[in-house]
Amino acid sequence: MSPVQEPADGQPEEAPAAPLPRLALREPLGDVIDDNDSYAAYCAQITVGTGPVALDAERASGYRYSQRAYLVQVRREHAGTGLIDPIAFPDLRDLGEAIGDAEWILHAATQDLPCLAEVGLHPSRLFDTELAGRLLNLPRVGLATLVEHYLGMSLAKEHSAADWSTRPLPRPWLEYAALDVEVLVELRDLIEADLERAGKLEWAHQDFEALLSFSGHGPREDPWRRTSGIHRARGRRMLAHVRALWEARDAIAQERDTTPGRILPDAALMEVAKASPQDAASLRALPAMRGRGPRRFLEQWLDAVREAAALPEDELPLASPRGDGPPPPRAWADRHPEAAARLAAARDVVARLSSEHDVPAENLITPSVVRALAWEPPSPVTVVSVGDALLAAGARPWQVDLVVTPLAEALGA
Description:
Residues 235-315 form the HRDC domain. The protein is 49% helix and 8% strand. With 413 residues, it is of the alpha/beta class. The chain folds into three domains: 36-211, Ribonuclease H-like superfamily/Ribonuclease H (Nucleotidyltransferase, domain 5, 2-Layer Sandwich), CATH 3.30.420; 223-315, DNA polymerase, domain 1; 329-410, DNA polymerase, domain 1, CATH 1.10.150.80. Strand 1 (4-5) and strand 2 form a beta hairpin. Helix 19 (383-392) packs across helix 20. It is globular, with a radius of gyration of 26 Å.
């Protein structure tokens, strides 16, 4: 039977593609490593293994306040896959010593490097398959998509949002976790070959080298301003209520190691901030307090609202956050038209180079760096001064080489 079907309008239509085969484990899955003997045995296996080491970590985002690792997956040729429970050990430094200077393979390294560093694991070399996919300008760079693209296999992701702090971990979850490192070595080699063919391998090496010093994004200034719905806050007094409630919720969440949204959802927080009730009866009557969870901390919410209501005017939060950087670009045309013109010219340059070199604009040069240079370029604007500014802002040499001359021209050199 032909795979081409004839629809009602007479035009041939291709039959749906057959589903891809599901990626499966190559060997039986061992038990979770959570005692000293099995841990020492696996470290010994890693020591005699060969080639790079694939790693991954599972956190409990959406369930826990902390971003600690609750499972660490490791795989190396001739060592097999190890699923290590980091909660069972003071740290995993012995594993780091066993790995030595072997290359790490990670997918989306910035997600896992901080929690791996918390348990004493630090790479000396690494290869990030997600970042490599971005440099190749692949349309999608999730691990499952890359496995499909390069290996022709489908990768199940149904447990990606699981609560990995659960003990004991269910067997299907462990199999899912093991699959995340099953083919990373093979995937790495295929992606590296594409990078070399595209003339981008040195770009990748420089970007990977920069990741070795990544320790996290650091605390945000005024993190309470990221509360969903805060744009509906009217006036500085209501902003003070949002801030006080956010800080109260954050303290409770941190103490209980629970994600803040499970203590009081953002929508409920905004409702309380808007109503600003000054007594327990009024607070309890709000729809936001109908659930037993929010009502458990009624006293804390009331204290926060009263504290915000009592603040003097000069201690109320500003309508917009203070910042050392430039204001949002939408305000530039009125406040600094020369800078707005420079930014438009610089963005045109980045867009052109992005297309010319087949790399996403944000990987070619960080947008915030371009905005900072357009707002306040070096004086005088020269290729050398712009290059120095780019390097000082963290740009890699390959990025500077590609953008510095046309960017300096756009900035007025």
